[in-house]
Design brief:
- The protein is an all-alpha fold.
- It has eleven helices and no strands.
- The longest helix is centred in the first third of the chain and has 29 residues.
- The chain is globular, with a radius of gyration of 17 Å.
Length: about 240
């Protein structure tokens, strides 16, 4: 378990943790714990920023998103950009995957990045600190869902080949129940948080299914897109007043 956590933090953050086991099932199973830690960091950033700019100021949430981007090396937002560009191009799966591997952000990708950062930042500035933790954790739970047993890896994806299909159903179900239960503490209405978390996970499942149809499986970029999409959806749902 300690080895899996170390590998998860090394994989999901810039924290200089020495991973003693290769990327695989245990790493992905422990990834939501990293999400909780990152959510706590984002919530703490929002709280500190609120002391300077005032509660509800948009800068508090934007700064929290900026910290998340720094601590995760921008990998997830880059994956979102590449995935959206791949989905936006014409041609067979091989062409879409080539566009994703090119690394140059196209107009679709740039638009997706800007909208995601703004929406997350504005949502974080209007929700509770617990809600921020739940939203960020939901993004990592969605990755566990994306790597469930029935999901294949796209051709030529080294990361996809390492993690696709590694997560058994009971692990996926356990993390979904956990994040939904935590959501009950995130808003004054105890039903709102669980609904927001479940909707975010459902949207992530749809994104994964669409990417499997388009690309033939998942890639590292798809996992990054899943993180950002599910975090954004969860944050929006938790911000509803």
């Amino acid at each position: 378990m300690i080895g899996s956590l170390a590998s998860a933090f090394a994989f999901g953050t810039v924290i200089p943790v020495r991973a003693r086991q290769p990327l695989g099932r245990g790493t992905l199973t422990a990834l939501p714990v990293v999400g909780v830690a990152l959510g706590g960091l984002a919530a703490g950033t929002t709280w500190v920023a609120a002391q300077a700019f005032g509660d509800g100021n948009a800068l508090t949430g934007i700064l929290a998103v900026a910290v998340l981007l720094l601590v995760t090396r921008g990998l997830h937002i880059d994956g979102l950009s590449d995935t959206v560009d791949g989905l936006g191009c014409y041609g067979p799966p091989e062409r879409a995957l080539a566009v994703m591997r090119d690394g140059t952000a196209g107009p679709f990708g740039v638009a997706a990045v800007v909208v995601t950062i703004l929406v997350q930042g504005l949502a974080f500035s209007t929700t509770s600190l617990v809600a921020i933790v739940v939203a960020v954790a939901a993004g990592r739970v969605a990755v566990v869902l994306a790597c469930r047993r029935s999901v294949p890896a796209a051709s030529g994806s080294s990361l996809g080949a390492q993690v696709a299909g590694t997560q058994p159903a009971w692990v996926v179900a356990g993390w979904i129940v956990a994040v939904a239960a935590a959501g009950a503490l995130a808003t004054p209405r105890p039903w709102q948080g669980p609904v927001a978390a479940l909707v975010a996970v459902a949207v992530a499942a749809w994104v994964v299914a669409h990417c499997v149809r388009r690309f033939g499986g998942i890639t590292g970029d798809v996992l990054g897109a899943v993180v950002e999409v599910s975090t954004t959806v969860a944050a929006l749902g938790l911000a509803v007043h």
